[in-house]
Amino acid sequence: MTRNPVKHFVSVAAVLGLALTAAVAEESAPPAVALPAVQREFRAVWVATVSNIDWPSRRDLTTDQQKAELIAILDKCKALNLNAVVLQVRPGCDALYASQFEPWSEYLTGQMGKAPEPYYDPLEFAVAEAHKRGLELHAWFNPYRAHHPSAKSEISDKHISKTQPDIVKKYGKHLWLDPTDKRTMDHTMNVVLDVVKRYDVDGIHIDDYFYPYKEKDADGKIIEFPDDANWEKYQASGGTMSRSDWRRAAVNQFVQRFYAETKAAKPWVKVGISPFGIWKPGHPEQIKGFNQYEELYADARLWLARGWVDYWTPQLYWNIANPDQSFPVLLRWWAEQNLTGRHLWPGQFTSRVRDGSANWPASEIIYQIKWTRLQPGASGTVHFSMQAFLKNADGINDALTTSGGVYAKPAIVPACPWLDDVVPEKPDLTMLREDGAPTCTITWQPAPADTDVRFWAVQKRAGDVWTLNLVSAETTSLVELAVPAGEGAKPTDAVAVAAVDRVGNLGPFAIITLPDGRAAVPARTAAAGGEVKKEEFGQVQ
């Protein structure tokens, strides 16, 4: 992406249409305003739809009830100063959006294949409502799970188990796509790219379900995944890899495609993966536990080292003090594997926070966030799941946002310079006020070369306190009181606005000051039929 190197500025004299001498302008100009630094941190939450974990809460809600629940979730995220939502849109070869490839999810309507009534597209709605609140929306896919045992309705004729039964395998209580079959990869990529191309999502995301976690039969014996047919074909063709390496190679091929084909479609859409938090036991030395390399056939370290992601979210679902699976020890190890400098945003088991001594206190999550901030190369976390925040488990919402808390102030998602390192330009900023009106309106427009603004970062100062808010690209104005609202109240006396593009680049701030809490630039120009009445005007820098 490139932008023309055009400088933009706002001339108060030009806005007023008045001839002001340089001496007058210089005499009235206030000292330059010093802005506080803007914090960069990814603060996201997984919103799970499988089994109706987070949303919708039930399968029999009306369209209006579903929308209300989703809006409540987004409002809660905004109140907690989160800046991204990772919404599960494909729990098991079904869709919580209008798909040409897969049927509507029963978690939405109670019946697989049944659309919402009255009709709406939940993903389209979620993207729009998230962006209104300055939140990124990432679409979360399960790449290979075809059917979850919590789904109880009749399987739709449009489901992959009916349309391509050869690539669907019964495994324990699940249906699973065969990861070694090219038709599986093609179908899953068609699903992913359909969302990337048709929806204005900020990112796409897959979790730790590659090959399934092992299941046991009635006698307690491990069930082998039934990929015998493709394995025999591979051997017959002269293949020499071990069966484990063959499985891993297939998963590697998909992950590489997942990244490359997304970038070919929309380079700015961020690609994230949240693997199981341990690559192999013994890496690092003290770590014990599940081996995803051998059990899920997921060579997660390879994917990170090759840069097949834009952000990396290992599920570090253990506490700090656990020596066998220590959160900071594993975080440091993953940072050391990050050879291409991608974002490291670990997953936190925030739903482990509940009232009662058998679970974590809210302080565990707070300390994990602080540990992450101390780890070079890590710049945020993702919480599982929204339930903890909806319940305010152990007062975690208050602990996060209290004065001095880790989320007390908003933050902007870190930029991805490997995708685009050209920052937006300074917006055109003006202030309008009708003669005698108690309020003034600050308006802004992007520089002509900036066509990919995602959000506006708006900072306001009242007295000596600055506040930051992210608003949608469509929001281009705000109204402020020009005089104090009451005894002791401090009106806004400065506003600063900067563009944030789709990959998180933050441009320079345009700043306007409101001398003595008053601003008077005409709301309508004479050319538009309004009468110019000047009291005093704000200063733009």
Keywords for this entry:
541 residues, alpha/beta, Immunoglobulin-like, TIM Barrel, nine-stranded parallel sheet
Please give a structural write-up.
- The protein has 541 residues and is an alpha/beta fold.
- The protein folds into two domains: 12-36 and 421-540, Immunoglobulins (Immunoglobulin-like, Sandwich); 42-401, Alpha-Beta Barrel (TIM Barrel).
- 27% of the residues lie in helices and 18% in strands.
- It is built from 15 helices and 20 strands.
- A nine-stranded parallel β-sheet has the order 10-9-8-7-3-2-1-12-11. The chain has a five-stranded antiparallel β-sheet with strand order 16-15-18-19-20, with no helix packed on it.
- α3 runs parallel beside α5 (122-132) and α7 (182-198) packs parallel to α9 (243-265).
- The chain starts with 11 loop residues before the first helix and ends with a strand.
- The model is unreliable at 1-30 and 517-539 (pLDDT under 50).
Number of helical elements: 15
**Number of DSSP strand runs:** 20
What's the CATH H-level homologous superfamily of the largest domain? Glycosidases
Second rung of CATH, namely the architecture of the largest domain: Alpha-Beta Barrel
Radius of gyration: 26 Å
Alpha-carbon distance between the termini? 27 Å
Biggest sheet statistics: 9 strands, parallel
Instruction: Estimate nothing, just give the exact number of structural domains.
Output: 2
Order of strands, widest sheet: 10-9-8-7-3-2-1-12-11
Broad shape: globular
CATH topology of the largest domain: TIM Barrel
Structural class: alpha/beta
In CATH's first tier, which class of the largest domain applies?
A: Alpha Beta
Task: Specify the helix fraction band.
Answer: 25-40%
**Whole-number average pLDDT?**
89
> Unreliable runs, pLDDT <50, ≥5 residues?
1-30, 517-539
| Portion in beta strands | 15-25%
